[in-house]
Amino acid sequence: MPPKKTESWTLIESILAASDAIVALGITLEDVGEDTCVLKMPKRLDLTRGDGTIYHGGPVASLIDIAGDMVVAVRAGGGVPTISLRVDYLRPCTGPYLLATARLRRAGRTISTSDVDVHDDQGRLCAVGRGTYSSLVG
Predict the structure, then answer these.
(1) FRET pair for 46, CA 20 to 30 Å: which of 55, 85, 95, 98?
(2) 6-64 pLDDT tens trace
(3) Domains (range + CATH), the chain
(4) Which residues on adjacent β-strands are paired with residue 20?
(5) What is the DSSP letter of 55?
(6) Residue 14 contacts by C-beta under 8 Å, 6 or more apart in sequence?
(7) Measured on CA atoms in the order 18, 19, 20, 24, is the torsion positive or negative?
């Protein structure tokens, strides 16, 4: 059964659809909670290192940034600017898709932080990231 379309779901879908870069990556919303957000990115040849098997780090970092942004956006009421982003690649990201699970670490008055785990289709943790974002829409 598909998840219920909440106000948060509608907000995130509208932010994702409004960005040509996000649309180009094929990123879609899988789930959203009060302090969590799960995004999915399908594998395509243009997102790999050229051999079609391993995702390039750039799209993985973008997935982490976008997921972190979306979990803050739910609290802020719209997309927020990234202040800083850290990514650690733990193993090659492979498989037909990646799932990024963002958790809101801290929602401050002006700055918020989120942690993101990226898993492949086998449930293996391939990358982690932490993003710092403005808490204000912009």
Answers:
(1) 85
(2) 999 999 999 999 999 999 999 999 999 989 999 999 999 999 998 889 999 999 999 99
(3) 7-134 (3.10.129.10)
(4) none
(5) B
(6) none
(7) negative
Going by the DSSP 8-state scheme, the letter that residue 72 receives in this structure is H
The residue assigned the tokens 């037909």 is 96
- Polymer length in residues for the chain: 138
- Rounded CA separation 24/81 (Å): 19
CA distance 69 to 67: 5
> Residue 93: which of 34, 131, 52, 33 has the closest Cα?
52
Quick one: average pLDDT of 85-101?
A: 98
Q: Which residue has the tokens 């972190």?
A: 68
Q: How far apart are CA 77 and CA 73, in angstroms?
A: 5
For the CA atoms of 34, 104, 83, 56, what is the dihedral angle to 10 degrees? -100
In this prediction, residue 91 has a pLDDT band, given cuts at 50, 70 and 90, of very high
Phi-psi sector, 50: left (phi>0), alpha (psi -120 to 50), beta: left
pTM higher than the cut 0.90: yes
